[in-house]
Amino acid sequence: MAPLIVIEGIDGSGKGTQAQQLTERLTTTGRRVRLLSFPRYRETLFGHAIGDFLNGRFGQLNEVHPFLASVLYAADRFESKSVLTAALQSSDVVVCDRYVPSNLAHQGAKLDGAERDELLQTIDRIEFDVFTLPRPSLVVLLDVPVEIAQRNIAAKKPRSYTDKAADLQEADAEYLQRVRDVYLQLAEANPNWQRVDSVRSSEQRPIADISDEIFRRVTAAIAP
Predict the structure, then answer these.
(1) Hey, what's the torsion of the CAs at 8, 12, 15, 16, to 10 degrees?
(2) DSSP strands (E only) in the chain
(3) Which of 167 and 93 is assigned the larger pLDDT?
(4) Strand pairing category for 93-97 and 199-200
(5) Cα 210 to Cα 218: distance, rounded to the nearest angstrom
(6) Are 82 and 36 in contact (CB under 8 A)?
(7) Per-residue pLDDT tens for 109-134?
(8) The pLDDT value given to residue 197
(9) Residue 31, burial from CB neighbour count under 10 angstroms (0-12, 13-18, 19+)
(10) Shortest CA distance to 218 belongs to which of 20, 7, 16, 1?
(11) CA R_g for the chain
């Protein structure tokens, strides 16, 4: 099976851009590389339901229990399992723009203390034990302050799942800060996570500069 490299971070951290850059750069080295993005809003039943959730169809963020929300995201990946497995079998590297860590960070952010710990363990069990999804080889966390992330969100092009400038999660700065806090907690606790600081001197680093650092870290991690 190919290494599974996951690019993570809060909304507006540049995950999609960096996942694409990494895919292109790894391809130039002669590797067969597949890029997948989650949620798969248009491709799966549960991906479509996630779009509805993010547009407020099922209520505001605090009106949907995080366990129930986590099942939507996990089921989107389970519905995509054959696609992911085929990519891992036919490629030299698979890059994911968001994966299980997004579920952990976003749903964990809605709880505190022992309740958060219990939910994180439950999500891990659902995704990896019940749905038997492959664990990542490396998780790259793009860490960016919320104020810069929201500025990036405001500049985004229209997305397929919403006609709003920002979905429920993106529009809530306090929520994004809590998500960032959980991401940092996970990065500290897991040895296969690497944090990349996307900001220098209170300004976002150039895309190419961040891309260089990610490429160095990933190639070092997957080197035979």
Answers:
(1) 140
(2) 4-8, 33-37, 93-97, 138-143, 193-197, 199-200, 203-204
(3) 93
(4) unpaired
(5) 12
(6) no
(7) 999 999 999 999 999 999 999 999 99
(8) 95
(9) middle
(10) 7
(11) 17
Q: What's residue 165's pLDDT? A: 46
Residue boundaries of the structural domains of the chain: 4-222
- CA 100 vs CA 65, 71, 106, 107, 126: distances in Å: 18, 11, 10, 11, 10
Query: Do the Cβ atoms of 55 and 162 come closer than 8 Å?
Result: yes
Residue 190 CA, distance from chain mean position: 16
**pLDDT higher than threshold 90 for residue 39:** yes
In this structure, what token pair is assigned to residue 122? 């439950």
Residue that the structure tokens 């850059």 belong to: 21
Which residue, among 72, 97, 71, has the nearest Cα to 84 in the 3D structure?
Answer: 97
CA 10/CA 142 separation, integer angstroms: 8
d(CA 118, CA 73): 18
pLDDT of residue 216: 97
| Percent helix / strand / coil, the chain, rounded to 5 | 55, 15, 30
DSSP 120-167: HHHHHIIIIIIS-PPPPSEEEEEE--HHHHHHHHHTPPPBTTBSSSS-
* pTM beyond 0.85: yes
CA distances from 3 to 96, 139, 172, 181 (A): 11, 11, 34, 27
Domain 4-222 classification at class level: alpha beta
Task: Please answer whether residues 4 and 61 qualify as being in contact, where contact means their C-beta atoms are separated by less than 8 angstroms.
Answer: no
Host H or E run for residue 170: none
